[in-house]
């Protein structure tokens, strides 16, 4: 069934000019883009986005990294989009992610791992309002 997911191209992905590569992979898989913006995240928004990790030892590094430079936020939709996009993204640790996945092909680290994608409907519902308001999510069909 049609599902929405929230994708972030993290500061390392933007800096390394991998945004086109990431979008190309989403498009060639058949994922539809309904919202997209370049932005610099505030500390408050970053802490909210990563609130499930607030007690983890890496929380402060995570927040300072995701706020260190521009990111690209993408709201995408497609059949089983959450698991499909997680499959395209690959395992969290780039040094363990399979070749052929975005992290497997472009990252060798657990923190600078190019991309974030929602891991569940609950996560998506928590995440997307941090990045998009309703007027920024286009309601249209691609005709496929
Ligand atoms: P992301 O999908 O954005 O969600 C949480 C992020 O925490 C994850 O990608 C990693 O980049 C980052 N991270 C940093 N250190 C760790 C760690 N030890 N375990 C899991 N995630 C980590």
UniProtKB/TrEMBL annotation:
It catalyses: a 2'-deoxyribonucleoside 5'-diphosphate + ATP = a 2'-deoxyribonucleoside 5'-triphosphate + ADP; a ribonucleoside 5'-diphosphate + ATP = a ribonucleoside 5'-triphosphate + ADP. Its cofactor is Mg(2+). Pfam families: NDK (PF00334). InterPro entries: NDK-like_dom, NDK-like_dom_sf, Nucleoside_diP_kinase, Nucleoside_diP_kinase_AS. GO terms for molecular function: ATP binding; metal ion binding; nucleoside diphosphate kinase activity. Residues 2-139 form the Nucleoside diphosphate kinase-like domain. It comes from the Archaea. PROSITE patterns: NDPK, NDPK_LIKE. Its main location: cytoplasm. The keyword Nucleotide-binding applies. Keywords: ATP-binding, Cytoplasm, Kinase, Magnesium, Metal-binding, Nucleotide metabolism, Nucleotide-binding, Phosphoprotein, Transferase. It is found in: Cytoplasm. It is an enzyme of class 2 (transferase). GO terms for cellular component: cytoplasm. One of its GO terms (biological process) is CTP biosynthetic process. ATP binds at residues 10, 58, 86, 92, 103, 113. Gene3D superfamilies: Nucleoside diphosphate kinase-like domain (3.30.70.141). The active site is at 116 (pros-phosphohistidine intermediate). Its EC number is 2.7.4.6. Major role in the synthesis of nucleoside triphosphates other than ATP. The ATP gamma phosphate is transferred to the NDP beta phosphate via a ping-pong mechanism, using a phosphorylated active-site intermediate. Belongs to the NDK family. NCBIfam families: PRK00668.1 (NF001908). This is Nucleoside diphosphate kinase. The lineage of its organism: Archaea, Methanobacteriati, Thermoplasmatota, Thermoplasmata, Thermoplasmatales.
């Amino acid at each position: 069934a049609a599902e929405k997911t929230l994708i972030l191209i993290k500061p390392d992905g933007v800096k390394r000019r991998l945004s086109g590569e990431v979008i190309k992979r989403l498009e060639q898989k058949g994922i539809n883009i309904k919202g997209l913006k370049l932005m610099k995240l505030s500390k408050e928004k970053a802490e909210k986005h990563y609130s499930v990790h607030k007690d983890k030892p890496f929380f402060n590094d995570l927040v300072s990294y995701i706020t260190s430079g521009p990111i690209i936020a993408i709201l995408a939709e497609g059949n089983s989009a959450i698991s499909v996009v997680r499959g395209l993204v690959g395992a969290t640790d780039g040094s363990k992610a399979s070749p052929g996945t975005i992290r497997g092909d472009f990252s060798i680290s657990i923190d600078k791992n190019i991309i974030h994608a929602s891991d569940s409907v609950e996560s998506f519902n928590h995440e997307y309002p941090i990045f998009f308001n309703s007027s920024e999510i286009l309601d249209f069909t691609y005709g496929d």
